Amino acid sequence: MSATRYALTAPAQLSREIRKSKFIANAANTTSEEAAIEFLERMSDAAATHNCWAWRIGERYRSSDDGEPAGTAGKPILQAIDGQSLDNVTVVVTRWFGGIKLGAGGLMRAYGGCAAGCLRQASKSELVETAHVEFAVEFSVLPTLHARLRALAATINAEDFAEAGAIVRIGLPVARLAELHSLLADLTRGRSEIRLLD
Asked: What is the pTM assigned to this prediction?
């Protein structure tokens, strides 16, 4: 898998007729296995001949041929997801059999091609891995801290105030953690420690 990953920013759909069989591919952003299963259940059509699918969420993935010959549907759909460097995505390709058999190669091309076409036309954005951290600072550094956090693409999630200062919880791109360490070292003369949150 490539280092840069992308996520869908909106659901996508593609419909194709291949040798009298109708195929409809549906894709959506799913950030958990539960969300993937819910999308699969919602998009599957009980009246269709097959509802084949695949999903990838980080290092976890699953696929199903749903009665098609082994390896001819789920795997090509997953390859379409990975081929476009997508993450947190589920694709369901539904088929209504039209009377003409496609053979193993034809099925792989049909399912993989429908999934790939659907994903190509979908709107996407780059996934940025986020770290959630907390740290304590004195009141006097809060205005400067707030201004500098914007430059780190950080989001303040919470601030709890006490007599000595504030406990600040933020989310920021993992790649900017070293910059945050330097910033806090400068602002607090090394007295503030960053704690990673789950």
From this structure: 0.69
